[in-house]
Amino acid sequence: MREDVKNFVTFICGENWEEASDEDRRGGYGVACMQAYINGIKPTVDEFVKFLEIPIEDVKAPFAQLLQSGLFSKAFNARGDTSLNIKLDVKKGKDKEDYLRDVKCAWGHIAAISSGVIVRNYSNMDIKPI
Q1: How many beta carbons lie within 10 A of that of residue 4, not counting itself?
Q2: For residue 57, which of 71, 41, 45 has the smallest C-alpha distance?
Q3: d(CA 66, CA 73)
Q4: Is 34 in contact with 114 (CB distance < 8 Å)?
Q5: Does residue 45 have a pLDDT over 80?
Q6: Which candidate, 14, 10, 6, 120, places its Cα nearest to that of 67?
Q7: Mean pLDDT, residues 43-49
Q8: How far is CA 15 from CA 18, 28, 82, in A?
Q9: At a CB cut-off of 8 Å and minimum separation 6, what does 51 contact?
Q10: How far, in Å, CA of 104 to CA of 114, rounded?
Q11: How is 74-119 classified by DSSP, letter by letter?
Q12: Distance of CA 13 to the CA centre of its chain
């Protein structure tokens, strides 16, 4: 995995996310996929594999969970979410601590959704993936 993305995933998921359970690994790879998407990568398995420099087997399951949960949709607006788009340089002191807590919480939800621990169902809503 790209070093910059791996550092971010480790910041969110902890030092041992790759050696932990299957759920933890899927969560980490889902965080990597969402981080790539937020940074402009087209949300497809092939694009994520190429950008993240990881095997397709590591991307398929978390990608499917994120896609089915509507996280790549315009309605979810991940690219516009202030808790997913980290700006550490604008926060200081207590504000920074509160901000980091919010960031980790938001990204923790991304990890949980990509691992299948949390399921978002949009079947009765008019939300389509992009």
Answers
A1: 10
A2: 45
A3: 10
A4: yes
A5: yes
A6: 120
A7: 96
A8: 8, 11, 25
A9: 2, 36, 41
A10: 15
A11: TTT-GGG-TTTS--GGG--HHHHHHHHHHHHHHHHHHHHHHHTSS-
A12: 10
Q: Scan for tokens 């480790």, then name that residue.
A: 10
Q: How far is CA 77 from CA 92, 108, 110, 130, in A?
A: 26, 17, 13, 11
Give the CA count within 13 Å in the CB-facing half-sphere of 59: 21
Average pLDDT of the residues of the chain: 86
The residue type at 1: M
* The residue count for the chain: 130
- Report d(CA 114, CA 66) in Å as an integer: 6
Pair 26, 114: CB distance under 8 Å: yes
pTM score above 0.70: yes
Phi first, then psi: give them for residue 98, nearest 5 degrees: -65, -40
Residues in Cβ contact with 25 at an 8 Å cutoff, skipping those fewer than 6 apart = 17, 18, 58
Residue located via tokens 């998921």:
13
